Amino acid sequence: MNKPSLVISCPIDTYSGYGARARDFVKALINLDKYDVKILPQRWGHTPEFFLDDNEEWTYLKDHLINGLSFKPDIWIQHTIPNEFQPVGKFNIGLTAGIETTACKPEWIDGLNRMDLIIGSSNHTIEVFNAMVFEKVDKRTNQKVGQMKANKPMEVLFEGIDTDVYKVEKSNFKLNNVKEDFCFLFVGHWMQGNVGEDRKNVGLLVKGFFELFKNNKNAPALVMKVSGGTASNMDRISILRKINTIRKSIKANRLPNIYLVHGDLSNQEMNSLYNHKKIKAMISLTKGEGYGRPLLEFTMAKKPVIASGWSGHCDFLDPELSVLMSGELKPVDQSAVNDWVIPESKWFNVDLQSFANATTAVYNDYETYLRKGKSQGTKNIKEFSLEAMENKIDDIFSKYIPEFPKQVQLNLPKLNLPKLNKDKPSLPKLELPKLQKVK
């Protein structure tokens, strides 16, 4: 059976959230066994590369890598931010985690409309894209000539979790220098922005944790698996400086301990960290997520999650089973503005009293929240697994992707020609019809 050719351009070989999503997505495509899958690797910002070399279980993907594109594929999938979408195949799909705020540039909508189908990671992503409307203006007359909005079909495809990797298991992760038996965990990048303004809100988490548990002799600790985007020693030093700067700004006789875990960890190592007996809960004051993969990963350890009550991760965090903090939408601060986080947009600001209430509640009544965490994990194993995602991909593709002409082998009939004499080879004598003489 001839399979439709499928080429996906994605950061398959990078240590990044987009890289993890790409590998899981491609794995599902290969498992479906309905397409001839080829991968066109791309970079992803300044994140480290060579993930496939470092992780043996993923090296089979190398057999699907191509260096360039010399043909027009039946299906072209581009996994990136929407303004980079370009139609290359006969049927073109834009795959994106989308957006962490309430608005995007018009170039993003223009990119969405270049494709035949858009697949976003969360309901938040698709809702924001569908809500965006821009006025078209004639540059010569400066008159409004219409509106621009997304006009292509969109579907939500959650980022499935590998339940063979992320699960409850005995941990062998080393946290020997952590003296506390009760630790909250944060996982993410510490990106640009003043304290309380960076997207993951790491600065405010650090400051809020210091303030909440200062002068407490029995304070819990905060373990942070965090970087600025690389695994370098300079990055590590930069993170420690940021923590110490905030520490020095707090007036107290005693401050709780914050521990930094830095560097590249495999999926198995991350799961071991999640399952460590000293790690009791995950916490995130994020301002916005297109999805929020670490939060879903942590639920597989069946422990409590405390997170902002807005954006992509709310798809898989049940407010009855996890702790979703309240807050309000506020304009993005200028210190956090970049090419895709625009000043016209808003994102979530956690209410500090809600943060204090949630954190102390989980710390003081852990068994109650542990039971909820176990229920959340059980629910997510069923609803957000890789197998469930694979089935969803199949449903979406069956709904939208057209039938492509199949290459058929040409079988010509055999001609019954007289056999030649091997000793005296000659052409067969042809009998021509007799012609009548024309008078």
Descriptive terms for the model:
six-stranded parallel sheet; 439 residues; 11 helices; alpha/beta; 16 strands
What does this structure look like?
With 439 residues, the chain is α/β, with parallel strands linked by helices. It is built from eleven helices and 16 strands. The chain has helices at 17-32, 51-54, 106-112, 123-131, 202-213, 233-248, 267-274, 293-299, 352-364, 366-383, 386-400, and strands at residues 5-10, 36-41, 75-79, 91-96, 117-120, 133-137, 144-149, 154-156, 183-189, 221-227, 258-261, 279-284, 305-308, 323-325, 327-331, 346-350. It has a six-stranded parallel beta sheet. It has a six-stranded parallel beta sheet with strand order 11-10-9-12-13-14, sandwiched between helices. Helix 1 crosses helix 11 (386-400) and helix 9 (352-364) crosses helix 10. The protein is globular. The chain starts with a strand and ends in a 39-residue tail after the last helix.
